[in-house]
Amino acid sequence: MQAVENIQKVLSELDPCKLKVLALSSVGVGGLLCYLAWRRQPKKIPFGDGWWRVGEKPFAEDRTIRPFVVETSEDVIQDLYERIDRMRYTDSLEDARFHYGFNSTHLKKVASYWRHEFDWGKQVKVLNKYPHFKTNIEGLDVHFIHVKPVQRAGQKVLPLMLVHGWPGSFFEFYKIIPMLTKTDGDFVFEVICPSIPGYGYSEASQVQGFTAIAAARIFHKLMDRLEFTDYYIQGGDWGAFITTIMALIKPECVRGLHLNMVNARAGGVKAVISLLLGRYFPFLVGFTREDVCRMYPFMQKNVYELLRESGYMHIQATKPDTAGCGLNDSPVGLAAYILEKFSSWTDFKNRNLEDGGLERKYSLDDLLTNIMIYWTTGSIIPSMRFYKENMGYDFQKIMTNTTKVSVPTGFAAFPHELMHCPWVWASSRFRDLRSFTYMPRGGHFAAFEEPELLAQDVQQFVKKVESRRSK
Ligand SMILES: *[C@@H]1O[C@H](CO)[C@@H](O)[C@H](O)[C@H]1NC(C)=O
Ligand SMILES: *[C@@H]1O[C@H](CO)[C@@H](O)[C@H](O)[C@H]1NC(C)=O
């Protein structure tokens, strides 16, 4: 009773004005709490829809999934040989190595191997060792391989989509697939590995505007068509952009996102301060010692090197069809253009070598198989257009997107990646960063170059996600 009287006394002493303030401020606090709760909710981003052929979208959709076999005709090979034989070379400058681009002495050697020793028929058999399919989504025939696991008693099967980038293809994953579909652990993966529309055996859009957002949506639709409702996704290069967008537009289907390239950065002034202080006082801005090793000297690593390596991007983001003409007409030109990326993006130091260091990490057979996927499908121009669509159309939406990602995320940071992303930046965008690994070696083409390391990292990440789910 005493308490109630006390409260009444207090209330009666409060003047109405003070009461109003009290009421307003409690509304304010309530509102703030609601706002914080709302902010914590992952933002729902529209899923959208598309149609990528000239003309109207038909009423009925063809949802069939057709088996597909990579085939090759003798005509294509004859034509290829004639073109290789007709190649006009220009001597490289003395001691130019790979600094001006592909050294022409070495290019002749690659072309000669391609012409006289490379066995495309044999590589086609390699390509067909996994089952391929095509299905039509948003008007495009989408190609993918689908590898069922070797399941042991008690093992859980987890679907995993692997997404490639440029200038790669689904073939980049051929060595890592068996490491994921056959494991000793508690789980094993069922791998789905699509070709981005316009790349390899996936049909290219006939109309403008085919971005990573469209690719992300199409890949979700593909998983839905395969009756998967809950899956892991993995990617580097464009694959990292696409899978990140997948996690934004349909997070409820993404059990975990694993990346070997991260698109995250600190905002304007904060980034400048971090970078200025980071070298000398890394602890102040949250950089680790390893981050500092990988990021500095800053101008050298993040400005000069990137300028040196990104000329292709400016061309592809502006006039892809012009430069693409020559590449689509000359197989040796195409090989030089693509293989030079495999050289320097694996390790910048490869520019100092006459052979670009290509065969230190890859076999010529594997490298040329990737080239053949571009050559035989004529997909270099559509693959280059993807830059224009993503960078020209809405830069904010794709390239500098900072929308927070809520799904469990794992990041394998390879030391020779084009640009290092420190943990603090990655964790500010990927709100549930479950694993961040400084990988001991390897560059931009992680799956192709270091399949074992990448497979291990994917597995330890998935193990973390699964063990927390089962708790
Ligand atoms: C590269 O190629 C040219 C001839 O095409 C040659 O003169 C040059 O010395 C080569 N080697 C190196 C290490 O640059
Ligand atoms: C980031 O990407 C998503 C998914 O495509 C998009 O809906 C969103 O608008 C983008 N955010 C910005 C700031 O552009």
From TrEMBL:
It is found in: Endoplasmic reticulum membrane; Microsome membrane. SUPFAM superfamilies: alpha/beta-Hydrolases. It catalyses: 2-(5Z,8Z,11Z,14Z-eicosatetraenoyl)-glycerol + H2O = glycerol + (5Z,8Z,11Z,14Z)-eicosatetraenoate + H(+); 8,9-epoxy-(5Z,11Z,14Z)-eicosatrienoate + H2O = 8,9-dihydroxy-(5Z,11Z,14Z)-eicosatrienoate; 1-(4-methoxyphenyl)-N-methyl-N-[(3-methyloxetan-3-yl)methyl]methanamine + H2O = 2-{[(4-methoxybenzyl)(methyl)amino]methyl}-2-methylpropane-1,3-diol; cis-stilbene oxide + H2O = (1R,2R)-hydrobenzoin. The chain crosses the membrane at residues 21-38. It is an enzyme of class 3 (hydrolase). Biotransformation enzyme that catalyzes the hydrolysis of arene and aliphatic epoxides to less reactive and more water soluble dihydrodiols by the trans addition of water. This is Epoxide hydrolase. It comes from Astyanax mexicanus. The gene is EPHX1.
